[in-house]
Design brief:
7-stranded parallel sheet, globular, 9 helices, alpha/beta, Rossmann fold, two-stranded parallel sheet, 278 residues
């Protein structure tokens, strides 16, 4: 592959993707809003660009084979705040991909697109959209955008419904954890699978208590290796009994299912910022 583009390269997940993606292509173009992202890997260059600018995205994706789109506001916020980067930004990436003849968009979707489904429902990749927040609504929009651009314009897409890619610090994560190694494998399979059309797959590790079913995405070849059960005893003991009437405990979206629309969900999740240093 000659050229890959990674949006959201300055983010925590982007920091773990840069090096492996740089080894899959002749040129990796990493992008974000930051002025720079420090030391670059061999074959990588950095371009500061705004997702809200269609012209910037068209220029960025020129000559690209695929784009790995992880750029966005990664939390619930007022609709007006998310409209530019998360809604319009998604449109700009897909439209720029179409205009440049880019084969495939690999998109960081989220469990929050289906976050109001009860956790006791073992949902598959064909579960209907049931967003828990404006953030989740943006993921629904982008997934539907991806489906339409495949049907109408033959731009392939793999939408990665990531559950929780962070250290296991709460009971929900014992089922929803996606390790960084499994994240990397997930993105690699979304890139190197020869034909994907429009596909959805859950981003979750091989957890004993994983609440979602990837059977219909088996053709992508993603076979996670890590298991959060190793953390279960300590995490459950520290948390104590959970309120079974709290949607944050009962729904796939976790805390995002509980917060008022427009209010941060991440603020309640004790996420450790352990981004990779170059």
């Amino acid at each position: 592959m000659k050229k890959l583009v990674l949006t959201g390269a300055a983010g925590r997940l982007g920091s773990y993707l840069r090096e492996p993606l740089s080894k899959m292509c002749e040129e990796l173009v990493s992008t974000d809003l930051a002025e720079d992202i420090g030391k670059l890997y061999p074959g990588e260059r950095y371009v500061a660009a705004n997702l809200e600018s269609l012209d910037a995205m068209v220029d960025l994706l020129a000559g690209a084979d695929m784009v790995v789109h992880f750029g966005a506001i990664g939390d619930e916020a007022p609709f007006e705040t998310l409209l530019g980067p998360n809604f319009i930004g998604a449109y700009n990436v897909w439209e720029a991909a179409y205009r440049n003849g880019v084969r495939r968009v690999v998109y960081a979707s989220s469990i929050h697109a289906v976050g109001m489904h009860p956790k006791t429902d073992f949902i598959g990749t064909d579960a209907p959209h049931r967003p828990d927040t404006f953030y989740g609504l943006a993921k629904c929009f982008a997934e539907d955008l991806a489906s339409m651009y495949w049907d109408k314009r033959q731009v392939e897409a793999v939408c990665l419904r990531i559950l929780s890619c962070a250290q296991v610090t709460n009971p929900r994560a014992v089922g929803s954890w996606l390790s960084y190694d499994d994240l990397i494998q997930l993105v690699q399979r979304a890139i190197d699978t020869p034909v994907t059309g429009f596909s959805v797959i859950y981003g979750v590790s091989n957890n004993d208590r994983a609440p979602v079913d990837n059977a219909k995405a088996a053709f992508l070849g993603y076979r996670p290796k890590d298991n959060a059960e190793q953390f279960a005893e300590a995490v459950f003991a520290e948390a104590g009994p959970l309120d079974h009437q709290d949607p944050g405990n009962m729904c796939h979206g976790g805390p995002f299912a509980s917060v008022e629309l427009g209010n941060s969900g991440v603020a309640t999740m004790n996420i450790v910022d352990d981004r990779k240093k170059t």
